[in-house]
Amino acid sequence: xxxxxxxxxxxxxxxxxxxxxxxxxxxxxxxxxxxxATCREGLAKELPEILLLDIGLPDGxxxxxxxxxxxxxxxxxxxxxxxxxxxxxxKRALHNGALGYILKNAESEEMLMGIETVSxxxxxxxxxxDILLKEKANDNVIWLSDRESEILKYVxxxxxxxxxxxxxxxxxxxxxxxxxxxxxxxxxxxxxxLIKKAYEMKLIW
Length: 205
Known about the structure:
Layout lengths: L1 E6 L3 H12 L4 E7 L2 H10 L4 E5 L1 E2 L2 E2 H11 L4 E6 L4 H9 L4 E4 L4 H12 L4 E2 L1 H10 L9 H11 L4 H8 L3 H14 L5 H10 L5
Parallel strand pairs: 1-2, 1-3, 3-6, 6-7, 7-8
Antiparallel strand pairs: 4-5
């Protein structure tokens, strides 16, 4: 039996998933969390084989949390469970270490197939996302490193170079380098255009 934990703030979704999974011979749900803080604490005490992780949680971004928790627990298999059917988010989730990406409106069979597939260390994408990624495979996609994404968010929120440097424990010159690189990558002439393009490309939201 595959041990599964769920982190999702929608209680009806959690209960429905828990019932679906526990009624099969494939897996069982051992613990549920409704925010990232309790999930972080719980994973430090008990690590499941698979974590079903929502993207939009009340105290943070599940995609960022995926990268954080994979650094601490590389063996943990993560399936993003979400309503976001967007190319940039799906790619970022996979880049951050997720092995699966399943929409909340997916069929029950697809959800169980995802758990089975990921338990074998294989990537699983629900049909809608699989089609989306294949359609976009040849598009000109902008890739940002975790640090670039972090700095871009701070820039969009109005932080100065010095304030960002203090927050990420780097010197201002390093932050200036990242800011300049972001302007080049997004082909933006200034910060205002950078932020506008970042929102349009769903690099921040």
